[in-house]
Amino acid sequence: MNKPPTGDKFITRREFITMLTGLGASLGVAAVLSDLDSLNDFIQQELAIDLREGPLEEKHHTKGKHRWGMVIDLGKCIGCKYCVYACQAVNDVPDDMRWNVYLLDETESGEIFHMTRPCLHCQDAPCVAVCPVQATYVRDDGIVMMDYDVCIGCRYCQVACPYGARSFNWGKRTAASGYQEAWGSAEVERRPRGVAEKCTFCVHRIDRGIPLGLTPGIDRAATPACVNICPVKARVFGDLNDPNSPISQVIASHPTFRLREELGTEPNVYYIPPEGMVL
Amino acid sequence: MTTITAPTSTEQPVSGTHSVFRLWIGFLLGLLIIGMVSAASVLWNGLEVTNLTNQVPWGLWITVDLSAIALGAGAFSLSAVAYLLRVESFRKIARMAVFVGLVGYTSAMLALAMDIGRPDRFWHPVLYWNIHSVLWEVTMCVILYSTVLVVEFAPILMESKIISKRYPKAPRIGHIIHQFAPLAAMVGLGLSLLHQSSLGATYGVLVARPIWFKPSLPVMFILSAVAAGVTFTLGVTIFYENLVRARQISDKLRRQLAMLAGLTMLGYLYLKLWDFLATSYYSHLPSRVEDLDLLNRIAPYGSSFWIIEVLLGGLVPAIILLTPTLRAQDKWIVAAALLAVIGVVVNRWNVTLSGLIVPLDWSPGVAEVLHVNSYRPNWTEWGVGIGVLGYGLMALTLGLRFLPMFPHNDH
Q1: Do A152 and B132 touch (CB under 8 A)?
Q2: What residue in A sits closest to B139 (Cα-Cα)?
Q3: Helices in chain A by DSSP H: which ranges?
Q4: Under a CB-based contact definition with an 8 Å cutoff, are residues B232 and B100 in contact?
Q5: How near does any CA of chain B get to the CA of A35, in Å?
Q6: Domains of chain B
Q7: Is B282 on the interface with A (CB under 8 A)?
Q8: Interface ipTM above 0.90
Q9: Per-residue model confidence as pLDDT tens digits over B22-48
Q10: Which CATH architecture has domain A51-272?
Q11: pTM, entire model
């Protein structure tokens, strides 16, 4: 290769001034461009790519009419765990797995309270963002869904979920749920070995109920099992988009918080603090 | 004793070592059998035969997978130096690097196939795209890059006696494919820069997890991969030279490779030091201090980070590679390569496990209701790991034995 000799090619005064002028002009163009509305709009659009829109065919829908959510009143909860048992039975969850977790916790002032946690159905769900195959996604109505037929079982969603709400089917199911008969019967299919699963807000009840004219959160047949069974009505379910729904009114009239709110995952599950907890 | 016949071509076996060679192959077959028995158990029973849990869903196999990919990083970096920066001397090692890379990537795929719950759906990422997922990006890059590796590897296979005896035209076809080496190196560089880093990002983006899952991981992963991958390629080459009792690469290239690996390693350690200082030591965010404290109480990750990973697996090999009197001796180069391998394996283990054993604190209360998770691989997991190691060593052995890794007149 013939390289041009560089020995006596120094910068001339003319070149230097041209270079500076060019640099100045470029800065000017850049400054104008950064003020250009259409370009900024485009950048804003790119930045605002919203996972909530859902995958594939649902991508171009506008946001749904409903947004299903839950309120759990930690002041009311008595720790009977009926919600856990009903969930296990209705969703046919293996006995060594929990979709709805119960914990005995304690406030800073030393008072105990009963903590339960379903899937929080985050509107900006980390599990949805990380899934390499879109096997989990946020529906228009806010429910975080699992597609068991697409899941490859990589378990990245489990690692990403800030709430430990996801479980994996490590082996093949053999035994029936020990909670069935007494607490309800299976309403959904068992999940196969090797896929992830989690609380669905009893989506099968919602999807069956709405075409029948039922209102989830009011009509029991369209309401999650854990909400129905609670003896002290510590759990309220309903449409967060409807200001007149029972859940919206509870949220409007009580102090509420969401778990690890600082992460910005926008959960659809709200908690009413127990006595002795300062928000 | 071994009767050393100075080989005229690298493909000539050393006759006296024949029985040793057979013994070695037998040993590797043993490893492969252990692997296959364990793999059969996993495929038959599912992942419940492992010690993985919902709290620690990733473990030994992910470590094997990440380490194998990292050790294969010599392929893209050395090909880039040889064909893009056009440093002619590096062409001598490019084949070896590509071959080591191919072995690394195929080993990783084996480990990964065992690790996913539905191996029958391994192809799903190709069909169901989630472009927002860093793991999807990793999968696609690894698939595409493996294709590049196969293209780069094809000429070596075509020129081998096994193929060229049966298909006399094969070497010519191989030569034509080799014309595309610079293009392959360019595509390979791009894909590798992407996925070697984004394997780190796989952890780095998980803001909900404390401590060692942090945004610096992409940079850390690629630097450690290049450092360890080049050291490993050099180590395998020097070891091979001792097996056949003949030098394959010049002293100049040996020095260049050692310098490249050693300096990359030092750069990595420097960034790692500041990564630690800036995110942990000098940052006194109470929750972070608590997490660090928690981590230190669980001894293996506290001490293996400093002693094995940083000192033994990083600083010592860097010193060996950068000291002229040490790197001139074969035993030190091989030692440096082994240490670099240990360093990268321990690093990938530490990154995975330290982030997963700290429990997620999502409950609003103050009681310590969630306990530190624990994980120790069981025999089935070790068995599969041993099988993958057996595959890797077997592939390296057969490749070095039967393929022209160091053709005497390259161009």
Answers
A1: no
A2: A132
A3: 13-34, 37-47, 82-90, 126-130, 156-160, 203-209, 225-229, 246-253
A4: yes
A5: 28
A6: 19-359+380-400 (1.20.1630.10)
A7: no
A8: no
A9: 999 999 999 999 999 999 999 999 999
A10: 2-Layer Sandwich (3.30)
A11: 0.87
